[in-house]
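Annotated sample (chain length 107).
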Amino acid sequence: MNILDKAIEISELYDVYQDLLTDKQKEYMESYYYNNYSISEISENMNVSRNAVHDQLKRTVKKLYDYESKLELRNKDKLRYKILEKMKNEKDLNKVLDLVKELEKVE
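Output written by the structure step:
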């Protein structure tokens, strides 16, 4: 997985699980991943060391992956989206009904 794909994945996880993070974690993540601030810029803005910013980002990203491994909300959302896309393009009513049943199985 390249750097861009990894950043997109982390952003998607953040979108799903941000309400489970502290305000401080959110501020670091948004500064780094959304506002494109460097670790040095964040450390200056927060009056902490660059190492503290790096550690906080690393721990928060790990936490996001932990949430996903336990709850799988992002994966379920992607699966629902794929099924809905198939439904939009399907003309056979029986196949649409099968897709509805498949959608209902996604917990």
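Annotation: The helical segments are 3-17, 23-34, 39-46, 50-71, 73-89, 93-105.
Annotation: The CA atoms of residues 13 and 65 lie 7 Å apart.
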